[in-house]
Amino acid sequence: MATESVESTLKAHPFLAGLEARHLALLASCATDRIFATGDFLCRVGTPAESFFLVREGRASLEVHVPQQPGLRLETIHPGEVLGWSWLLPPYRWHLDGRALEPVRALEIDGRVVRRACERDHEFGYQMLKRFAQLLGHRLQSARVRLGAHVT
Fold this sequence. Notes:
Layout: H1 3-12, H2 21-29, E1 31-36, E2 41-43, E3 51-57, E4 60-64, E5 72-77, E6 82-83, E7 97-100, E8 104-110, H3 111-120, H4 122-150
Antiparallel strand pairs: 1-8, 2-7, 3-6, 3-8, 4-5, 4-7
C-alpha cells in the first residue's frame, strides 16, 4: 500500500479524526497493511505488545483466556475501530487475546515508533493519549457489563 494511500486511509479512520496531517504522515510511515484469516490471532495475552491495529474490514474478538475453555469474548471489534492499547504502557505486554472472527484487514501501527514520537512531540503524545484513554474507558465499561452478564 503506497504511503499516500495509507495516509488517506488513516485520515478516514474514525479513531484518528481531527489528527494533524503531520501526525497522520508519521503514523503512515510506520503502518503495515495486514490480513488475518478467520481464527488467526492478532495478539496473544502475555506476549510483547509492540503495535496496535486500525481495523478496516472484518471483525475480531477481544477475549479473556480461561483455562480449559474457549476464550470469553469481552468485545467484538468492527471496521473503523481499534484493537490494542498495551503498546502504550509498561510492561508492553498484551492483556487479552485478539482473534479474527472472519477475515480481517487492518493497518498495524508500530507502537514503538509511536511511543518515541510521543516523547519528542508532546502535542502528538497528548492527542494519542486522549484517544487511547477514551478507548480504555470504553473497553473497561464493556468488560464490566459483559462479565456482569456471566455472573450468577
